[in-house]
Write a structure and sequence with these properties.
Phosphatase 2c, domain 1, Rossmann fold, 24% strand, 37% helix, alpha+beta, elongated
């Protein structure tokens, strides 16, 4: 057995693809370095599997060429297999080529199952090894290029998504209002707006598109585009929902729908006129701690074009609090998969009803985040309206 040599780094071509080689035999490392240098690659070597992850965390490599059997586990390949899994968890696109003996083909197959890109049997054929490495590098380059394009597209989608939401909330005489939305992914299917119609009327709208990510965001964008011109017409809530519904029925797939709550607040009369199209019932909490659910007055949007919606009116008294939310808030679950629930939301709101609208919103969001340990399962949106 040759004497152990320290891990080393060697680069022979500036800008060349850099390969990390891992093997516990010095003669194998030397042979592979000579081979790869001859074909224009730069290399770094390590002799212990534990140092592979350290090298990947501190330096940039284009591929890993590694043995599956090490001195601590010369038969089962356990260290090598575990290393493949760890590399793949860290970087899903980095090429990982494994090397194993002729008698260990089953081990190589297991390595492929765990995420290895390809394998080479020892003793290896030089041309075959280099060709396989080149193929993996080429494929990885294409995958990373596609990933970058997808990331750019998602960033543009997020910018469009953000522009669809209010930049700032209007001032409402005798009322405080606060709002927050958080998509589960880069973009989401929740929508809200708070918009002044005239000096005494303010529109409040919250909606939840069935589906997450880009599909939900695309339908949400259609909803926002259809809603904006209707808000300017000061329509009755039932009429606005009817028109929205007919428009959405033309573009909504059969397996999708939109739940929506739309209300108009008359701050001079302290009257809220609303239409609830299958949305989570907002909670109107009074200063004495009692409350009222603003229940559904119609079906979800996007499925029944001829549906006739109804509307209701509620009086808002001094000190009253209105909570509007999507189910991402109440369905956030703890480690035992128990959802947060509306009763917890109402309890926390009741205990903190003396706070300002913005402070109360922050308390609610912290309460839910702590309950689910920050692992939300859906897009989350909340609006808090408080009569001063």
């Amino acid at each position: 057995m040759p004497a152990a040599i320290p891990d080393k780094q060697q680069s022979v071509v500036v800008g060349a693809e850099r390969i990390l080689i891992a093997d516990d035999q010095e003669q194998v490392l030397v042979a592979l370095e000579m081979l790869l240098h001859r074909y224009g690659f730069s290399t770094a070597t390590v002799m212990h599997p534990a140092r592979v992850m350290r090298a990947l965390e501190t330096q940039e490599f284009h591929a890993v060429l590694m043995d599956l059997n090490y001195t601590r586990d010369t038969i089962g390949g356990g260290e090598g297999l575990e290393l493949v899994s760890r590399i793949r968890s860290r970087d899903s696109l980095l090429p990982v080529m494994v090397m194993t003996a002729w008698s260990s083909v089953d081990l190589a197959v297991e390595a492929m199952r765990r995420g290895a890109s390809d394998f080479v049997q020892k003793p290896w054929d030089n041309e075959e090894l280099v060709q396989k490495l080149r193929d993996q590098l080429s494929q990885a380059q294409q995958r990373r290029r596609k990933q970058r394009l997808c990331e750019l597209e998602m960033q543009e989608a997020r910018a469009i998504h953000d522009r669809a939401l209010p930049k700032e909330l209007p001032a409402i005489p005798s009322y405080e209002v606060a709002a927050f939305t958080q998509p589960l992914q880069l973009v989401g299917g929740d929508y809200y707006t708070v918009a002044s119609i005239d000096d005494r009327h303010t529109a409040l709208c919250i909606a939840d598109v069935a589906g997450k990510g880009l599909p939900g965001a695309l339908l949400m964008s259609s909803l926002q585009a259809a809603t904006r011109p209707l808000l300017e017409q000061n329509l009755a809530p039932r009429e606005l929902c009817s028109r929205l519904n007919r428009l959405l029925c033309e573009v909504t797939p059969a397996d999708k729908f939109v739940s929506l709550f739309y209300a108009v607040l008359d701050c001079a009369e302290d009257c809220l006129t609303y239409c609830n199209a299958g949305h989570n019932p907002p909670w109107l909490m009074h200063s004495d701690g009692s409350g009222t659910e603003l229940e559904s007055t119609g079906v979800v949007l996007g499925q029944f074009p001829d549906w006739s919606f109804e509307q209701k009116c509620v009086q808002i008294r001094s000190g009253d609090l209105l909570l509007l939310f999507t189910d991402g808030l109440t369905e956030a679950s703890n480690a035992g998969e128990e959802p947060y629930g509306e009763w917890r939301l109402n309890r926390v709101a009741c205990r903190n009803r003396a706070r300002s609208a913005d402070d109360l919103m922050q308390v609610l969001l912290r309460s839910v985040a702590e309950y689910c340990d920050g692992h939300f399962q859906d897009d989350t949106t909340v609006i808090v309206l408080k009569h001063e």
